[in-house]
């Protein structure tokens, strides 16, 4: 990773709970991109993400490409590892889903 995001994730994991906040790179993602990132962190495939969000797999791929670019990550594995560190905060940013 180029910009030290992984180092930020490690520092986050070691910080006190009251000091935890999203790095600006994650906060700058769109709500849909954060939603896709959360699903990636939970191990969902593009097909599962598409079905869950009622969008096409191509749209999911576009979101994943955008996420990787914005976070300066190489692949979805890095995205999943990085996002899992911030998963609870990412989930807090998402509006509750209707049931």
Explain this structure.
The protein has helices spanning 5-14, 24-27, 31-41, 46-53, 57-71, 76-85, 87-93. It has 99 residues and is an all-alpha fold. The radius of gyration is 13 Å and the shape is globular. It starts with a helix and ends in a 6-residue tail after the last helix. The model has no long low-confidence stretch (mean pLDDT 81).
* SS class: mainly alpha
- What fraction of the residues are assigned to beta strands by DSSP? under 5%
What letter string, H or E per element, gives the SSE order? HHHHHHH
Mean pLDDT: 81
Annotation field: number of helices: 7
Largest beta sheet, briefly?
none
Molecular shape: globular
Radius of gyration: 13 Å
């Amino acid at each position: 990773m180029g910009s030290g995001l992984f180092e930020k994730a490690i520092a986050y994991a070691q910080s006190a709970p009251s000091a935890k906040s999203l790095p600006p790179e994650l906060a700058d993602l769109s709500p849909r991109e954060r939603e896709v990132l959360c699903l990636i962190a939970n191990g969902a495939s593009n097909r599962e993400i598409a079905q869950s969000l009622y969008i096409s797999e191509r749209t999911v791929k576009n979101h994943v490409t955008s996420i990787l670019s914005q976070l300066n990550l190489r692949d979805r594995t890095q995205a999943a590892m990085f996002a899992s560190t911030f998963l609870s905060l990412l989930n807090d940013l998402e509006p509750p889903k209707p049931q």
